[in-house]
Every structure is written in structure tokens, then in C-alpha cells.
Amino acid sequence: MRRRVDDDSAADLVAEIFAVAWRRIHDVPRADARLWLFGVGRNVVANHLRGSGRAYRLIEKVAANTVTQADDHAAAMAVYLTENHPPGNGPAEILAAMADLVRDRVLGPARRAALLRVLAEVPGLIYRGGTTDRAGRRGEAFMPPNRHGGLASERTLIVDPVTGRLLDTEILLLEKGRLDVRTPCVYQYEIHTVSEFADP
Q1: Which residues of 35-55 are buried (b: 16+ CB within 10 A; e: fewer)?
Q2: What is the pLDDT of residues 13-32, one digit of tens each?
Q3: Which of 32, 44, 111, 126 allows an S-S link to 107, with CB 3.0 to 4.6 Å?
Q4: Where are the domains of the chain?
């Protein structure tokens, strides 16, 4: 696998392969389980490689559509996002920083484009395709690999493909630990419906 993807992505893909195997445990042929698992691995890696390329192209397209200025401030945006969100916590921390920024600030087209360009550079970013957020709006879903400590979870961002606005963030809990919940389950989500300046 490491011949086809980077080391960071390889660990996440192995975890995803075994998650698929666990979800489909009743489909595993007893005689050829190893061969079946290799087939699952091949499909997961192929989807990752296709998704990574699509994610980058889609984000660049949306970023190009949302900005009218040549200067997009992407480098400054990348630095700003790490102020309260240490990069050592993994790629999912960037998405948490983006969600915090959108919650706290009104972003114009140039800043949204810069945010999308930072998102495009998240290592191992997975494009999950078109989706509908919890408010019924169409968007494009992106998910980073999650190597942060604690219970296994997946963070998803949904972006408007026309305006580049962040529509929704969601965290799916994949393991329950000591919690009395059935997994997988959504344990946090935010819907961003309005972003405007208020009169003082």
C-alpha cells in the first residue's frame, strides 16, 4: 500500500479496510478471507486516490469561482488556522479550526477562497461526493483522516459548490468506549445558515 499512498494516508486506509471488513463480517467468505480482504483493500485505495484528485480539483474550481481578487491570502489563512489548533493533532484539527473560524467570523469571497485553498492542501483529504446537509442544501462533502487521540471518529465538512460557504460540519463517533451508545452515531453537528454583519 505504501507504494501507492503516503505513510499518513496508509494508516488511515488500513483502518478503513478493517472497518469495511467489520461492517461486512457476514459477507466474508471463510475459505478465501485473505483474498477478499485484499480485494477490499484494493477498492479502498483506488477510491482514496480517485477521491483525493477530485477533491483537489473541485476545491480549486470552487475557490476560483468565489474570488474576484488576485490575492487570495491562503498562506496567511493557513498560519491563522494553526493559532489555537496545533497541527500536531492531525489533519482533522484543520477542519476544526475552519469550523471555529466560520462560526466566529463573516468571510467574504476572498477569505472563503483562501479557506478552500487551505482545505485543498490537507494531507489525505477524502472527497465523499455530493450530499445534502441537515438543512436540505446541496453541497460537497470532505473528510480528513483522523489520527487525533481519543475515540475513533470522522469529521465531515460540507461546502457549497457555488459560493464556497461552509454549510455544515459533523462528527460521527465510530467506537463507543465506555459510553452507553450504539455506534456509529452522530455526536456533534453544526449547521451554518446565516453569515452576516449585525447592526450594533
Answers
A1: ebeeebbeebbeebeebbeeb
A2: 777 777 777 777 877 787 88
A3: 111
A4: 7-191
